[in-house]
Amino acid sequence: MQLKAIGLAAAAGVAGAAQADVDIVGVMTEQSNTFGIDNNEIESTAWIGVADLGSFSQSFSQLGDTSWRVEWRAPAGQFIEIAVPATARRSVLAVEWSSGTSNRTGRFEGQVPLVPDMAPGSNAFPIVQMNMSLTGPEGDRAEAVAELDNVLLPGEVYRFTALRAAVKVPASYSMDFDQPVGTFEISGVAEWDISDNPTDPGQWIRVVPSPGTATLFGIGLIAANRRRR
Description:
The chain has one helix spanning 211-228, and strands at residues 2-10, 18-27, 30-38, 41-49, 55-59, 63-73, 78-83, 90-99, 108-113, 115-118, 129-134, 142-149, 157-169, 176-193, 205-209. 8% of the residues lie in helices and 56% in strands. It is globular and about 55 Å long. The strands form two sheets. Strands 3, 4, 5, 8, 9, 11, 12 and 14 form an eight-stranded antiparallel beta sheet that branches. Strands 1, 2, 6, 7, 10, 13 and 15 form a seven-stranded mixed beta sheet that branches. It is mainly beta. The protein contains one helix and 15 strands, in the order βββββββββββββββα.
């Protein structure tokens, strides 16, 4: 995970404070999936996430108005792909980053659009709101969460290089954080009735090579084979 604060400058009217961009960028390199019966339904889960979660260390008390941005990104030359199983009766997708465990009242909270960097040829990604929140006094919870319940359509394929959300944290918010990150992932659940007898869709949320990268890789293999002859 990468965490950085950039663009520091004196905040007008706030003595000793600074303005900053707090950027949290996670590259999705890990993945897993399951398939089985749960509570009289058949479920398929798929997950991609960050390998090294790291920590969230930020002193908002030292900042003025701050742009806080979280980004879920594919590795260079690859796309994140979500292919909702065509026969699923219901699907739920969660996009989440979180740090800390306490969640107290009096916190900062904002709802902002979840913005995709779409790949060519992808189905259109729906307009989705993400909740971004920072805990109140004596807490240590920070999170950015969006849940898409039956929003993505079965049988459609969504590809993008990144999802991101950003919110403005006012200078009046003054909590400090130093906690390990617990979650940085995109996950999904697809459901069927037992009578549907579905086949396992496998890793339907995954990271795939971009078409250009795959083409170059194929050309490289052909060239290597010719050199061996």
